[in-house]
Amino acid sequence: MVELLAVGHENYLALDRVIAVAPPGAAPLKRAIQSAREHDRVIDLTSGRRTKAVVILDDGWVALVAITPETIASRAHALRTPRVAPTASAP
């Protein structure tokens, strides 16, 4: 089953396709974004907002999102962490 990661504004990414998540400020990421734009391999999921994270996918696509890398990491962790149902305590 595909786990979908909410990246804001009713947009989702397949969690198993994500390779890396990072803030967009570093020069290597700016070059990666530019290269992906030149090859029409950018998915802009910001809905017109400021890009706060760049998500590199396993097939070479680059997704731009408007939530922070920390938020993405915590959402991914929540998806991958099994939930334990609370047990009723014995009287």
Structural summary, described in words:
The protein is α+β, with helices and mostly antiparallel strands and 91 residues long. The chain is 26% helix and 29% strand. The chain has a 4-stranded mixed sheet with strand order 3-5-6-4, sandwiched between helices. A two-stranded antiparallel ribbon has the order 1-2. It is elongated. The protein starts with a strand and ends in an 11-residue tail after the last helix.
What's the short version?
The protein is an alpha+beta fold and 91 residues long. It is 26% helix and 29% strand.
Which features characterize this protein?
91 residues; alpha+beta; 4-stranded mixed sheet; two-stranded antiparallel ribbon; 2 helices
Whole-number tally of structural domains: 1
DSSP summary: helix tally:
2
Tell me, briefly, the overall form: elongated
Report the structural category: alpha+beta
Uncertain residue segments: none
Strand % is 25-35%
The value of Rg in angstroms is: 16 Å
Helix and strand succession?
Answer: EEEHEEEH
Number of strands: 6
Give the helix level as a range of percent.
25-40%
Average pLDDT confidence is 93
- Measure the end-to-end span: 39 Å
- Read across the widest sheet, the strand sequence of neighbours is 3-5-6-4
